Amino acid sequence: MLKNNKVKTIISLILAVCMLTSMMSAVFAAQSNEYTDPADVWLEASGRTNEFDVNATITYETQFCFVCMMETSMMNYRVPEYTKSGETALNHNVMYSDGTCIDGVSTGNIDDGDPGVDSFYTGYHWTKSICQNCGTINSVDPADRYDHGKNVYILYSCDSNFFLDFDNTTYSYHDDETHTTVLKKGQYCQFCKGTYARATTQTDPHDMDEKVEAQLGNQRFHVTGICSVCGYNKDSYVLAKSVVRSYYGKVDGQAHSIVLNDLSEKGVNTSIRYGESADNCNLTSAPSYTDEGYYPVYYEITYTYGGTPMVEDGVSYVWLIDTDKKNDNTPMATSAEVHVHDFRFLETVRPTCTELGYDIFQCDGCGALKNTNYTPAVGHDYEKAVVREPSCTQGGFEINTCKKCGAFYTESTAMTAHEYEENTIPATCTTNGYTEHRCTHCGITYNTDLTPLKKHNYNAKITNPTCTAKGFTTYTCDSCGESYISDYTEPQGHSWNNGHLVTSATCEGAGIIEYDCTRCGETMIEAVNPKGHTPGAAATCTTPQTCTVCGAVIAQATGHHYNQRTVTPTCTTDGYTEYTCRDCGVRYIDNHIARTNHNYRTAVTPATCTSFGYTTYTCNDCGETFKSDYTDKAPHHYHAKVTPPTCTELGYTTYTCANCGDEYVADYKETVPHNYRKQTVEPTCTENGYTVYTCPDCGKEYIGDYKDAKQHDFKKEVTKPACTEMGYTTYTCADCDYSYTADYTDPAGHDFTETVTEPTCTEQGYSTFSCKNCDYSYTGKETAKTPHSFTEDVTEPTCTEMGYTVFTCSD
């Protein structure tokens, strides 16, 4: 008996050393996620022992069998103890899985429940063993123990040296912004896999690792991201678009340039450079012009998102028209002349998307201008660019840009529906069946049609009993490989033949007959017809008295006569009874009494919002310490700061923990509609009508609701032709005062009357022609002067004066 107990002690020490050695590598992996709490995968079965069998950890170890009386291979089953109170059944003296107490007689309450539902690991484990040689259950304990040969589990404390820290936190997709975190950290027993931890669930934002691809042709960045925590994949597009519009207008003394509208989405950085040639764009602001001309403005736009750049090149124009030109070199008509305009074609102003076109004529004489030959506005020619196709996770976005003037408007399209493909996962004996619905585009899944576990499909392998070993049946599931042993049958016992004489009797005529077992070949020797023996030394505790002649046993060994010494159990050592033979001094230990409960004092470490709470238990008697009663992290004490949505930015709430500073953004709210103010410009006969929509909150502005220009309402005023001027009709618009002349008629010419002035002897005669209709007159038809009609007055000469005749005209 002493030998056997020493063997058990040595084997136990070797096992402990092996497990501690294997545990060394696991210490360095204490924070891995490979460990699984048995309570998370617990399988129900009919009967407590069967349920332990299908959930136990099975190992093969070399231990001493009290039936075989030698070291054999033992198949050991170990499963953590779970109770509703979280306290071991040993606290109320229950030691065996059928409810039997330590004394092997009385019964008590096991306080069992459903692992993972309403019961918790106690720090103890259930175990049973089966000898692989003789098939005896729990033969590692002597025959006088209650569990020996019974299909029951025995309760043992888990050694604190086998506990390891672990982090078995799992993450799963929740929605496009968050994943579900099932937090499970603490300690577990490497021996039986039991864990103190209790899982808590929370929702956390994705930690996205993004890859950005520039797609200039679509004016967007393609963003693919994967959550580094839960593996969620997200595929989205970000608009990167600036609309550059040419400027068409009149010279008005002000500087004019091209117009830029940046439509890029949040997060896109837009940088633009300008130049007067395509290969020299280095100006930070667009050049401006005041003089008449047609000016190209080249530009280079760099969009950057997530560190990825994208460059767009282009050219727009500034076209300024001077409508106040004068021909200052043309002499004005003299006051004696009547000026008739001589209009010459100057240039054509082409129509734009929203403005009329017309021809400009200038008088070659006075420089006066007039516009005529109006052509209607050509209207916008929009070209659609799809920035983002709609998907099942994101709406689409389109931008429509006029190819002529750069005017634009945007449109959003609704998200498409998920397109699910179904994959039916059949139930097995270890996992439930279900139908998985997975979107072929975004990968989101949900499960339906949950089906229960199938029954194990056990194949039975019968091991027949032998003469000395029990028979049993090993049931192995051909689906999952789970196995258990049941249906034990008692040993058959030897079947002896009639025997044969080996040796004739010597002492008192006795001989020896040898019997052979017909099943196993075991032999048995029996003395027959014994003679008188010659007694040898008296029998002792272990040695029988034999015949000195033939060696036959005359008297059996007397057996040991033991004195008992009881050792009281402590919290670190079991109690037991030591038996010492008073005749030969042989010793053995039996009647083991489980060690007493530790007298723990507790120190509670409260949970914070960043660490678990736990209770440290320290035994007042032996100083052993362990941590247990882990409590969930305290909730974050978040302060919420609400950023309301605007018409250009999403609203959101920033949550900041007042204790640890943890911060996240959630509760996004859609942008509010633009609060457009409308300013309606009614159409006139020269301008189209339209409505200007202006958001006072963000300044966004667009023009819509175009109305065609009205027709001129011309009133006619006929100017009849004069003597020297053409007649014409003046058409004047009653609405806008615009006027033009047309329908010219030839001048009427003068209607003269003739007044004749007769010639005299001093003046020529002539005719005066006066126009009856105007003040214009001229002289003509001149006639020669008439002769003088002289009278003579003669003065005679004197002696001192000459004589002379004075002729005097009588007219």
Q: Care to describe what's here?
A:
The longest helix is centred in the first third of the chain and has 26 residues, at 2-27. The chain is 4% helix and 45% strand. It is rod-shaped and about 250 Å long. The relative contact order is 0.06. The strands form 19 sheets. The chain has a 4-stranded antiparallel beta sheet with strand order 1-2-3-4, sandwiched between helices. A hairpin with a 5-residue loop joins strand 37 (575-581) and strand 38 (587-593). The chain contains 2 helices and 55 strands. With 811 residues, the protein is mainly β.
Task: Looking at this protein, list some descriptive labels.
single chain, 811 residues, mainly beta, 4-stranded antiparallel sheet, 4-stranded mixed sheet, 2 helices, 55 strands, rod-shaped, disordered N terminus
Please write out the topology.
Blueprint (H helix, E strand, L loop, with lengths): L1 H26 L20 H8 L1 E9 L4 E14 L36 E12 L22 E4 L5 E5 L2 E4 L4 E6 L1 E5 L10 E6 L2 E8 L4 E8 L5 E7 L2 E4 L1 E4 L8 E4 L6 E7 L17 E13 L2 E14 L21 E7 L7 E7 L5 E7 L6 E7 L7 E7 L5 E6 L6 E6 L7 E7 L5 E7 L6 E6 L7 E7 L5 E7 L10 E4 L7 E6 L6 E6 L16 E2 L6 E3 L6 E6 L7 E7 L5 E7 L6 E6 L7 E7 L5 E7 L6 E6 L7 E7 L5 E7 L7 E5 L7 E6 L6 E7 L6 E6 L7 E7 L5 E7 L6 E6 L7 E7 L5 E7 L6 E6 L8 E6 L2
Parallel strand pairs: 14-18
Antiparallel strand pairs: 1-2, 2-3, 3-4, 5-8, 6-7, 7-9, 10-11, 11-12, 13-15, 16-17, 17-18, 19-20, 20-21, 22-23, 23-24, 25-26, 26-27, 28-29, 29-30, 31-32, 32-33, 34-35, 36-37, 37-38, 39-40, 40-41, 42-43, 43-44, 45-46, 46-47, 48-49, 49-50, 51-52, 52-53, 54-55
